[in-house]
Design goal:
The protein has ten helices and eleven strands. With about 325 residues, it is of the alpha/beta class. The termini are far apart.
Length: about 325
């Protein structure tokens, strides 16, 4: 079988990075691939150019994660970019310029093929599912409990606990194999879903109360500003699942969260849909992208302006 990834030895200088606002799939995939490649190379750098959300601090070896700073690192032979639809998703850094070969591994339909080598499978449940086959088939590196734990975390979170349509029989076959390496499901479930702060739960109650419903109940919109986060003393990443409550309401087809970012004048939008609408298209209208049923964008403006522009776009779509 012809291998696409150049051969890796102990001197190969490797960088691995995923997107900012890290989720389970981005963190699970960079940690899994990083831990696997460390069995081959002594020069593996796993970069996270953002804070590690507390709920993921249980992942094995996360102390290895470093911030990329241009002046601290020389060139790399290989740079693996994971779970990023384009080469801006991991932040405004010069990492790709410093890398001889860029390997793009992703499952977003909006992926623009920015790598020298592209493993883009839009039918994969998660980037972790692709990384599983790259580690085992392409690199032929043996899995272990730590790698399996990282991969499982990415798959379970990106499939919404195996509920989304991207979940296939292959997904379950991969997971079955991961469990044989001793993945502790109970421990992962506890960290991901059963350890929410009291403040974040009260915050959830408040924003659901304030949620607005449009287009005969088909659209649910939640807006969150920085003052509200301060009032409840929560970080946005603590409440990342809020949008699912809006999506899961009977009759709702599209759920949107519009959030004031910490950067001045920046607004982050998350989209989810149930069956009938393509929210990747909706996100594109704001310069973003993602999947048909889950997508996001970062734009400039005020909460009010963005909401108005969103309602105009929704009116044409629904
Ligand atoms: Mn993903």
């Amino acid at each position: 079988m012809n291998k696409l990834i150049p051969s890796i030895n102990s001197d190969t200088r490797i960088a691995i990075i995923a997107h900012v606002n890290p989720d389970g799939d981005s963190l699970g995939s960079i940690m899994a691939l990083g831990l696997a490649l460390m069995k081959r190379s002594n020069q593996v750098n796993i970069f996270l150019n953002d804070e590690l959300p507390g709920r993921y601090s249980f992942l094995p070896e996360v102390h290895l994660l470093k911030k990329y700073q241009s002046n601290e690192f020389d060139d790399f032979d290989l740079c693996f970019v994971l779970d990023c639809g384009d080469d801006r998703r991991f932040g405004d850094i010069d990492l790709l310029v410093k890398s001889k070969e860029v390997i793009n591994i992703d499952h977003h339909v909006s992926n623009n093929g920015f790598g020298d080598i592209n493993f883009v499978r839009t039918d994969a449940s998660s980037t972790c599912e692709i990384v599983y086959s790259i580690i085992t088939e392409e690199l032929e590196i043996q899995l272990d409990e730590k790698i399996a734990t990282c991969l499982y975390t990415g798959i379970v979170t990106d499939t919404g606990n195996f509920r989304y349509e991207s979940t296939t029989s292959y997904t379950h076959k991969v997971v079955a194999e991961l469990l044989d390496f001793g993945v502790n499901i109970q421990e992962i479930t506890f960290n991901l879903y059963q350890n929410n702060s009291l403040n974040s739960t009260k915050f959830l109650g408040h924003v659901l109360n304030q949620m607005e419903i449009y287009f005969n109940g088909k659209v649910a919109i939640i807006t969150i500003d920085q003052d509200l986060l301060k009032e409840f003393d929560v970080k946005y990443e603590e409440v990342e699942g809020i949008i699912n409550y809006a999506r899961d309401i009977e009759g709702v087809e599209v759920a949107v969260i519009i959030k004031e970012a910490t950067t001045d004048g920046e607004i982050k939008i998350s989209f989810r849909s149930k069956k009938n609408y393509d929210v990747n298209e909706l996100a594109k209208g704001f310069g973003g992208g993602g999947h048909k049923r889950a997508s996001g964008a970062t734009t400039k403006g005020t909460l009010t302006d963005v909401k108005e522009s969103l309602l105009n776009k929704l009116e044409k779509m629904i």
